[in-house]
Amino acid sequence: MIGNKMKTLIRKILKEQTSKTVLVAFGGIDYATAKWMNQQIPQRIKDSKTVITKSYTSKTADVVKELNKIDYNRLEVVGFSAGGKDVFELVKAIDINFLGLIDPSVPTDWKVGLDNFPAGKDSILFFDNSNWIGNKVKGTRERQPLLATAMEDKGMEVKEEDLRHSNFPKIFFETYM
Using CB atoms within 10 A of its CB, is residue 120 exposed (0-12), middle (13-18) or buried (19+)? Predict the structure, then answer.
């Protein structure tokens, strides 16, 4: 009889041999650590792709170096809250096949990366602008609607939902991935 550790190892080896999709998920400030983001991702996603969770403080160059060491044919990148800025930075540095902005903070230079977003429904903004009352990240409340309009104009998916900020990642993964 094969033990649980052996089964886990076999699954991991098989996944690495068959999975050519990498998901990079950036967390946010406080509770929304890389570990917490990993907990929001359903097991079916973890079983079907290589999942890398990162802090919002990750350096873009380091993430690109890590990705360059992996053999993949599809790159999916999502950012929650403060991790949204990482998505904007990474899309300027590397080709992304699927992009998710999950109730993100929006950097002042957000327009710079927009032309590099994947086309159509492969770019998704899932947010609740009312979560940004109180100026949590200066200017995000004003920039989110501008980003939403720009993405809609390009035929990208935009969904504003009345949700508590911390509920966004789990619902995003369950609904859009």
Answer: exposed
**pLDDT value for 12:** 61
pLDDT interval class at 13 (50, 70, 90): low
Straight-line distance from the first to the last Cα atom of the chain, in angstroms, rounded to the nearest whole number: 35
3-state secondary structure of 56: coil
Spatial contact of 172 and 137, defined as CB atoms under 8 Å apart? no
Taking only the tens place, the pLDDT of each residue in 14-34 is: 555 555 999 999 999 999 999
Q: What is the pLDDT of residue 16?
A: 53
Residue with tokens 């230079």, as numbered in its chain: 109
Contact by Cβ (8 Å): 140, 106: yes
CA–CA separation, 156 vs 148, rounded Å?
A: 9
Report all structural domains of the chain as residue ranges with CATH numbers, in order of start.
23-176 (3.40.50.1820)
